[in-house]
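Anyone else keep sequences and structure tokens together like this?

Example one:
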Amino acid sequence: MNNFYKINNWNELQKGQKANERTPFIKVHTNLLISKPWFDLDDTTRLIFIELQILGSECMGYLPEDETIAFRIRRPLEQVKEALVKLNEHYISIVDEEAYKKHLELFKKELEDQSQKRKESGRLGGIKKHENAKSVRNDKLNSQADVMKALDSFQAEKDEVIDF
């Protein structure tokens, strides 16, 4: 049976990030500098945890099975397994395959909802932009008509003065 993982406190650590396929950055908190368990880890395991956070950002903190992790972060499988064991106590949790798949389904639904909202707001934005452009055009036409009326009025007054 494959183990799947999730990064503990993902929503707190990456507060404000919306679900999307790949976030451009992750937040690394300064709390790590005062964390005793963090300093008990070797340098390789600490670096792997940062790499896991980057990988986890693709799926709101959930991580695939060991083999996929090793491939994605380009590290030997044994090194990854060893790091996962060390990180399991404080920084990551094991989740079963069913929970992982359920999370993926919810995550995909969230992505689809966001995509639909973007499309809808883009469509509505385009309609609004078109309406605004139309009203600006009408305002310009009205102001041009006002200018023409003023010129005609001025011309009529000028003609009266000249005739007098």
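And example two:
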Amino acid sequence: MSRSAPRLALMGNDGQLVIRSELLNLVAVSALLVANGCAPPVEGLQQEDTVLRFTMKSLDGEEIDLAKYDGQVVMIVNVASKCGYTGQYEQLQQLHEKYSQQGLAILGFPCNQFLGQEPGSAEEIKEFCRANYGVDFDLFAKVEVKGENSCELYKFLTSLDTKPKGAGKIGWNFEKFLVDRRGNVVARFGSGTKPDSPEVVELIERELAKTPGANSQN
């Protein structure tokens, strides 16, 4: 009678650890998720308070009450200058140019937590974004978006039951949260979803079409 192969590992004749295919597959899937800006989802919370209740520091060092964006549709993005997704700055700027007059506000939060891909100073970040992508949407001071020292804004954002990507830690740079005119998070997209993807644009246009008092759960 044949025996089932051990599921995790065996010790080879030469004393080296022989990893079973099941573990290798698990590692490969995990690596693929991270590479696509995804982290394993966790059970999320229903939002009970506006995301616009926080005060954040701008790239110029000014304290900004996010309540100033109340009544607008807001896209919150953790950004970086040396990332494979950095080119998304171009699409973010295009969205800003096309929809800002209709009420879209894009907020960029630089973060250096993913392989040190945002090492620059505030002035260097500003100049990089201006020179390479003509960015003139709002950029904020560098923050941490995961772990114990994560800023309160991102602790709140990542705790929520969102779609299509659910609650859980930020997996990589350029994750996107879309917030309706009443401060409710209506969607979360992973890094691999471009800002001008059809599903993102459709949702932006849908939320812009609503009046500030409209119910965004429809």
